[in-house]
Amino acid sequence: MTGLQSPVGVRSIVTYLVAFFILASSIIFLFDKGHQDHVQMAVDHGRQEVQVKVEAELQEPAMRETTEVEDTSKEECNWSRGQWVYDNVSRPLYSGLKCGFIFPEVACDKYGRKDVMYQHWRWQPYECDLPRFDAIKLLEKLRNKRLVFVGDSVNRNQWVSLVCMVEASIPDDRLKIHIFNGSLISFKALEYNAVIEFYWSPLLVESNSDNPIIHRVDYRIIRADRIEKHASVWRDADIIIFNSYLWWRKQNDGMRMKVMYGSFEDGDARLDEMEMIDGFEIALKKLTEWLGENIDKNKTRIFFAGSSPTHFGASKWGGEDSNKCLNETEPIYKVGYKSADYSLMAKAMSYFETLEPRGINVQILNITELSDYRKDGHPSVFRKQYVPLTKEQIANPASYADCTHWCLPGVPDVWNEFLYGYLMYK
Ligand SMILES: *[C@@H]1O[C@H](CO)[C@@H](O)[C@H](O)[C@H]1NC(C)=O
Ligand SMILES: *[C@@H]1O[C@H](CO)[C@@H](O)[C@H](O)[C@H]1NC(C)=O
Ligand SMILES: *[C@@H]1O[C@H](CO)[C@@H](O)[C@H](O)[C@H]1NC(C)=O
Ligand SMILES: *[C@@H]1O[C@H](CO)[C@@H](O)[C@H](O)[C@H]1NC(C)=O
Ligand SMILES: *[C@@H]1O[C@H](CO)[C@@H](O)[C@H](O)[C@H]1NC(C)=O
Ligand SMILES: *[C@@H]1O[C@H](CO)[C@@H](O)[C@H](O)[C@H]1NC(C)=O
């Protein structure tokens, strides 16, 4: 079906239908209690509108690392190959209770999580040490710069982690601010004129899920040839970290991606339907094209975060599936344990490689396997619930356990140690 050639009547019906679906899918969400995991993702940022907030309370300086490891990281060493080491001396890197910028969906200790081991694991590559994270060095590196995380709620999780990793080293609260502006959330370190932001764009290209608060998660439409609305926000950034994974997974066997071509304005809108993974390729293709044509390779460094594993299927590590990640307090110790899907990341790499002849290098933060071990790292029930729980849910905590996002301090701190290492040394 091509809109351009179809008779006007058909074309306008199609246009009408597309418009209807986009509208309906936004509205239906409000009434859609849906499957809990999805609702969680959809509403996990229930904070509202534009809000400029200057933190007022005094914060204490971060807990400092005490280990005296040298930065041997400049060598070629594969950071993805390693193991979790219990280290209650140098971890956590900050206090979740004291971080004034933490979000309620990942502030597990604030929401009742009592076990603390999950905060004490350090990732130890086999062949070297990760560079020691130094917030001041990072802020210096970011002086007069803008770093933007672009993606979904897992990427926002990583953004919150990075903000907590640096904010404690700015004890004067007048020198750090938080600004919520629709899809864009900014942290600013004023003395450094450094900006660390998160921009909501879960499917990379424009889609019916672009509203960070109201979006239906199980009926998705992407726009194959539209990315400019998003790109205009991050085009001038100095460092961009993309992610996109969660929203391309099939949540049921029949789930397909709707892909819209053309536009209402031009009257050539048409809608296709395809496998989720094929939709991912369309988004990657558009993003790659855009980067190739627009990015200033002398200015902007680009990263793509590997897929973040979930832990809903407890039988994979010898538990009961019905418990999901409930009550897990220790990592999986089996060396080489892998359950995550690496295929999307490989797909993404194959697109980004095509940019190399133009001198644009997209670096992959390969955090998938290390995160795969951490069945203990998720909020499960210890997070803010934006939708009041039903009696049935309260009676069965696994039914609403969040085994997708990560408690902070926790696993995403290591993703940021990777990012730090790349920014400083690679
Ligand atoms: C790092 O190790 C992982 C796991 O063994 C491997 O898949 C990956 O290709 C390695 N990366 C590099 C750059 O050698
Ligand atoms: C740290 O862990 C060690 C070994 O598990 C334990 O003996 C020690 O008491 C812990 N220290 C603190 C401060 O929790
Ligand atoms: C919010 O974003 C819009 C455009 O995206 C911009 O015009 C406006 O100045 C921003 N507001 C604040 C408070 O930053
Ligand atoms: C980027 O840097 C190279 C080498 O330093 C230089 O030749 C080129 O003109 C620069 N490109 C832009 C767009 O500034
Ligand atoms: C999880 O822990 C709670 C509190 O200790 C306990 O009541 C519950 O039975 C546990 N659930 C599972 C599935 O282990
Ligand atoms: C990432 O690492 C995993 C193992 O840790 C490996 O299987 C995979 O190929 C790597 N992917 C990329 C894109 O480097």
Automatic annotation (TrEMBL):
TM annotation in the entry: 13-31
Gene Ontology annotations for the cellular component aspect, listed alphabetically: Golgi membrane
Membrane topology (UniProt): Single-pass type II membrane protein
Broad class of where this protein is predominantly found: Golgi
InterPro entries, sorted: TBL, TBL_C, TBL_N
Localization terms from the record: Golgi apparatus membrane
GO molecular function: xylan O-acetyltransferase activity
Superkingdom field: Eukaryota
Domain Trichome birefringence-like C-terminal, chain residue ranges per copy: 130-420
Domain Trichome birefringence-like N-terminal residue range list: 75-129
Alphabetically ordered keywords of this record: Golgi apparatus, Membrane, Signal-anchor, Transferase, Transmembrane, Transmembrane helix
Similarity comment: family membership: Belongs to the PC-esterase family. TBL subfamily.
Protein name in UniProt: Trichome birefringence-like N-terminal domain-containing protein
Lineage: Eukaryota, Viridiplantae, Streptophyta, Embryophyta, Tracheophyta
